[in-house]
Amino acid sequence: MMNGLRRGVVVTFGVLIACLAVGASGASGTPKPVEHCITPTAVDLNERWGISEAIVAPFCTEVASGRGWIVSNAWFMNLAFDVVPASFVPAGATPLDDFKAKFIGVKYVIDAGTKQEKTYQFPSDESLGVILNAGGFDVVNPITLGTLKPLSVGDHVVDSYFLFSEMHCDGLGDVVEDNCLGPGEVLLSTVEFKVLPGNH
């Protein structure tokens, strides 16, 4: 009987070790957390905007394969309409109010002009990223509106467009070309980046 008990203990112990080994190997196969995107001024964009996906920006140009990703396009505005072009008609009391009233959404064109070209558009809603009075500016970023699908390994380019129903101005100056966006579709940025092989 003692031998039967020993065999039972040995078998149970063996099963436990096997389960632990499977659990350990399964854990090692899970994706690693994304590398956070840090600006040249040491701001962690993932933390700032509450984003867990990889962020693409002029200073963050690598994404692991198999991962969704997002583009950062921050727009800074004055806290008030101190200076505006003569032709400008605001749709709110502040530049931020005006932006929200006129901003339709964001469009991303990936690898434009190639066989791999893809276009995504996300409408503006209450999830639009907004930071109030950040160093004397109100800041918006459509980074929170949607995630882009994983891409093939290699080099890519993403063009980001802001879409406006009417002209929006930032309240910082009276030069339309420098201080205003829209109406219609406005190219805000073009970023070249790489998708790296493996589970990074």
The shape is globular
Radius of gyration: 24 Å
Give the SSE order as H and E letters. HHEEEEHEEEEEEHEE
Major pleated sheet: 5 strands, mixed
Give the DSSP E fraction (strand runs of 2 or more residues): 25-35%
What is the percent of helical residues? 10-25%
The pLDDT mean sits at: 87
Number of helices: 4
Strand order of the largest sheet: 2-12-9-5-6
- Give the count of structural domains: 2
Uncertain spans, ≥5 residues at pLDDT below 50?
Answer: 5-28
Number of extended strands: 12
How would you characterize the overall build of this protein?
By secondary structure, the chain is α+β, with helices and mostly antiparallel strands. It has two domains: 28 residues; 152 residues, no CATH class. It is 22% helix and 30% strand. A five-stranded mixed β-sheet has the order 2-12-9-5-6. The chain has a three-stranded antiparallel β-sheet with strand order 4-8-7, with no helix packed on it. The chain is globular, with a radius of gyration of 24 Å. The relative contact order is 0.19.
In short:
This protein has 200 residues and is of the alpha+beta class.
Layout: helices, strands, pairs:
Layout: H1 2-28, H2 45-49, E1 54-56, E2 62-64, E3 69-71, E4 75-77, H3 95-102, E5 103-110, E6 118-123, E7 129-131, E8 138-141, E9 154-164, E10 168-169, H4 176-179, E11 180-181, E12 184-196
Kindly list the characteristics that best describe this protein.
200 residues; five-stranded mixed sheet; three-stranded antiparallel sheet; single chain; globular; 12 strands; alpha+beta
